[in-house]
Design brief:
about 150 residues, alpha+beta, Nuclear Transport Factor 2, Chain: A, six-stranded mixed β-sheet, 6 strands, globular
Length: about 150
């Protein structure tokens, strides 16, 4: 997939996320998507897992995701540097709402299950894996770690 197509797909995904529209968000993910939240030590698989992951965040925070940079590291791996901003308005992992604002830098690593990106972003097919770290914004640190976090 050309970088411009991946950017278009990422744009559709982030737009759906920012609207908290689960159907449109899932439309940008494959059925076998995997979310590993390394900061929380939790893994979410498939559309049911993705729904649980997004609901966990969306029910607790009125988040908006801002893309900062996109790196196409190799034919099957992309790294997006983003910032999540919002207000803590609902329970989150046993923590009652505080009303406080959050700003969390997040790195998303997306790896295609087939070894390359699909031929077209118009199909709504997205990478198989998405991993995130809270608090890490260093591209060199990511590259030293290898970026291939999903088998």
């Amino acid at each position: 997939m050309p970088a411009s197509d991946y950017l278009e797909l990422l744009g559709r995904h982030l737009d759906a996320e920012n609207r908290h529209d689960i159907e449109d968000t899932l439309a940008t993910l494959t059925d076998d998507c995997v979310f590993e939240d390394l900061a929380l030590g939790r893994r979410f698989e498939g559309h049911a897992g993705a729904t649980a992951y997004y609901r966990m965040w969306w029910d607790a925070f009125d988040t908006e995701v801002t893309p900062e940079r996109l790196h196409l590291v190799e034919p099957a791996t992309a790294v997006a540097e983003t910032t999540w901003r919002g207000k803590h308005g609902g329970p989150f992992l046993g923590i009652e709402p505080t009303g406080r604002s959050i700003e969390v830098p997040v790195i998303l690593v997306a790896t295609s299950a087939t070894g390359s990106w699909p031929a077209s972003a118009s199909t709504g097919i997205a990478p198989r894996c998405s991993n995130s770290w809270a608090g890490s914004r260093s591209r060199s640190r990511l590259l030293r770690r290898g970026c291939r976090l999903c088998p």
